[in-house]
Amino acid sequence: MLTFQSVSKTYKNQVCALDDVSFTIERGEFVYLVGPSGAGKSTILRLLTAEEKPTSGQIIIENQVVNRLRRSRISALRRRLGVVFQDFRLLPNKTVHENVAFAMQVVEAPVATIRTRVPLLLELVGLSGRHNSYPNQLSGGEQQRVALARALANDPGILICDEPTGNLDPATSWEIMRLLSLVNERGMTILMATHDSEMVNRMKHRVIVIENGKKVRDRVEGGYLN
Amino acid sequence: MRHNGGMMFASVGITLVMFIILGFFMLVTANLEYMAKDVEGKLEITAYLKDEISQERIAALTQEIALVPGVKSSTFVSNSEALQRLGERLGDRKDLLASYEADNPLRHSFEVYATEGDKVIALAEGLQKLQGIAEVRYGREEVEKLMSMTQALRIGMLLLVAGLSVATLFVLMNTIRLTVYARRQEIQIMKFVGASDWFIRWPFLLQGMLLGLLGALVAGGVLFLLYSRLNQYVAVEIPFLPLIPMMPYLLHLIRNLALGGIIIGFYGSMMSLGRYLNV
Q1: Size of interface A-B (CB pairs under 8 A)
Q2: Which positions in chain B touch A81 (Cβ < 8 Å)?
């Protein structure tokens, strides 16, 4: 459902971030995107969310070519993606409930739908009791769970995670990973960029390795190799 | 929005100043044009009579004026009739004139129409020589003077408005920019969650339009008060000066200022957003 076809990206300052990268991710897969810093993982994610356009090649998401989208179409694309960041990126002045609801308000979902769905999402991530708390009252792990609930709010086609455990301690990281596993088992496609080699080895999934802008390895059997 | 209350105050303040000045000029220009039109035609001459004139003199003058070359018609206007006309102009402020009914400060006059435009000056001079005539006024002269004044004022007003618009726009844009900056985190999140550009824009547009509207309305209120005071003053001290009556002109003025405020607010916000936000 997601394909990179010979995608290359060179930024304006002549930096070549990606060089002829190709891969396909099927529905329901869980794929790690690994590689050293600056290798090109973030670029791949930014190309997926249409924050950047590829210099050459094609990106196809759910049968739609997304390299040359008009601005109005970009927002529509992003509504079909769920994104989780390393730094959570919750709105500090809104409660947990409001933060998740916000994603639905932005796509103009009916109020009644929001009212029923948000508690379900919070229950899924295990935060039903905290729906009135503010982000600064939550631990890092709890905040990330809220971010996850928000990312799932509009039932996206794919969940994109950019170092979701980067700011978390190992125990909490593991909790998040278990949640992601759960979500994946229910059918959600997940693409996760990460440094966390231990996690990649513990919870094995397909691994795509990027180094210096090139796809170096695509191991379906998983495991982080150097 | 609490963050930059000071800037918002400045925005409203400068919009206010600009609209007061603009409104003031519009009133002055409109009044000048009104006065110019009020003088019916270039051919009208008004000959004011001396205060101490006798009834026989008035009767005699009626004959004499008709004999002056170039006269097409002439009508006597008593001072009570002039007072009544003034009353009509004041509308419901007529009560101001109540005290004058006993002691009318206005003069008797003759309204004289010339047969042709180029006879006006000679006719006026001829009238001036008649006994009992205190002052002769040409319609045309006043019209010409007023028109050139109006023209000059118009140009001045346009320049002033252009300059002030830029200043107002600048302050408004800065205010919006600060708000945008204060909320940039929220905006970024809105973007990656897939909010459309208009969804993100509209609160800022609303803020800009309200600021502009507020400045314009307050300016309108100030002008309303000032003009009504002016009307009262003029009615008493300078009665022959024709001023545009308050209603409905001032309501139209306020409405136009309000529209202007909203438009400036809208464009200021759009420009700010485009520049600082890529939205």
Answers
A1: 43
A2: 194
A43-53: pLDDT as tens digits: 999 999 888 88
User: SS3 for A196?
Assistant: coil
How far apart CA B265 and CA B206 sit, in angstroms, is: 8
Q: Quickly tell me which residue has 């009570």 as its tokens.
A: B80
- Inter-chain touch B194–A107, beta carbons under 8 Å: yes
- Which of A50-59, A138-147, B144-153 is the least confident region? B144-153
Q: Would you list the DSSP string of A110-142?
A: -HHHHHHHHHHHHHHTT-GGGTT--GGGS-HHH
The tens digit of pLDDT for each residue in B186-210 reads 888 888 888 888 888 888 889 889 8
Taking CB atoms within 8 Å and a gap of at least 24, the contacts of B184-192 are B184/B277, B185/A89, B185/A91, B185/A92, B186/A91, B187/B277, B187/B279, B188/A89, B189/A89, B189/A91, B189/A102, B190/A106, B191/A75, B191/A78, B191/B279, B192/A49, B192/A78, B192/A83, B192/A89
With CA atoms as reference, the chain A residue closest to B197 would be: A72
- B190, A106: Cβ pair inside 8 Å? yes
Of B185, B188, B195, the CB nearest to A106: B195
Largest CA distance in chain B: 94
- Cα atoms found within 13 Å of the Cα of residue A120, Cβ hemisphere only: 9
Q: In whole angstroms, give the CA distance from residue A142 to residue A90.
A: 11
Strand ranges (DSSP E) for B35-169? Answer: 44-49, 71-77, 109-114, 133-138
ipTM of the complex: 0.79
| Residue A106 near chain B (CB below 8 Å) | yes
- What are the structure tokens assigned to B74, written together? 């002439």
Q: Is A107 helix (H, G, I), strand (E, B) or coil?
A: coil
Helix (H) or strand (E) holding B142: helix B139-182
